[in-house]
Amino acid sequence: MNYVPIPVDMLETGKPLPVDVWSPNGQLLLRKGQPVVSAQHKEKLKAHNASSTEGDAMAWQRSYERMVHQMLRQGIDVQVVAKAPMPSEIREIDHVVVKQINGGWLDLQDVLRGILYQGGLAISPLRRLAAIEKKALELLKHDADDCLFSLYQALADDSLGYCATHALLSTVVCELTATKLGLDEFQRQSLRHAALTMNIGMARDQDSLARQSSEPTDWQRNLIEIHAEKSAEILKAFGMDDPDLLDIVRWHHAPEDSQALPQNLSSRRILSLADSFIARTAARKTRSAQSAVKAVKSMVLGAQGEAIEVGSAMAQAVGFYPPGSYVKLYNGEIAVSVQRGARANTPWVISIIDKEGMAISRYVCKETLELPLSIHSPVNFENVRVTVNAEKVHLARKRIPH
Length: 402
Known about the structure:
Elements: E1 3-5, E2 21-22, E3 28-30, H1 39-47, E4 51-53, H2 54-73, H3 78-82, H4 105-118, H5 125-142, H6 144-155, H7 163-181, H8 185-197, H9 203-211, H10 218-238, H11 243-250, H12 266-280, H13 292-300, H14 306-318, E5 326-329, E6 334-339, E7 348-353, E8 365-367, E9 375-379, H15 390-397
Antiparallel strand pairs: 1-4, 2-3, 5-6, 5-9, 6-7, 7-8
Helix pairs in contact: 4-5, 4-7, 5-6, 6-7, 7-8, 7-12, 7-14, 8-11, 8-12, 10-11, 12-13, 12-14
């Protein structure tokens, strides 16, 4: 058993400890729930090199960091924050041991789909969601353009299901936008968790709605109306007690003029716009997909204040022609966007259909800064009859100069 020294000087006298306290050789000094009773008691613990298990230490540290973050957000003076003792409670989610998920976005999609479909009956959801988030961040840090490409391509494939793809793409778009806007890690973490789970209250029905050729029934409209609150309740039952996370999920569909909206929750607006943006760019049996350019215009048209700032940051983060989407070039070729460019409207692309309508087998990345390779117009997924080879795209992108 590995033991980690605990910060004895930061323990509050009279408050119960949230962990068992051990000596480095495994002797139990204090049981979880017992308090430090005096200054002399603290000195005795220090003399015995009071420690906790490695798992408890990590959970306690996460709980402390969250407490400090909340105090700073509440405007508490930094001198007061610096003197704050270790918390006497540890949230359940801080004890979650994150397992590694191997593979790429489609593997994450399989795991997430299972959790979303199970809803409130999901087994070990916190551990599994934490593993998804960890792997998603690793993939995003390694190659954000590949993340966007993989997920936008998956969005067009209804055989993969819609709910999990939408959730993962929302997570990526939210993380890129929040980073551009300068949100801190705790805010981004709440936002990521919300993006992954915002539709857990209607996941199966979300997939059904994406495939059905008729308008939603009255029952489905009611589910759409209540799903945000239902999702928040499911997450709360999981043990997710982060108030920002629950508020983001609960209010992500609320109108901007709603009197019940929490104040100063920028993350909620980011998720609301990302959710709408991705939904607009996904095709339905009852309508065609909107282009990203049109979806961006829809987001900012008539918007005011912070909504314009968030919409602009999202457009810059993702681009007008996100990797994985299709465009027509001025030379008549149809191309797939594969990497964001110097500007939102100048991505790197690979032509896949020539101007005569024939498939192009040799993949070459092209910059769209100037005619005749600049972009003429977006092209809907359903109008492209050629399958894009993701591995060839990956190899071609390696030749883009950096």
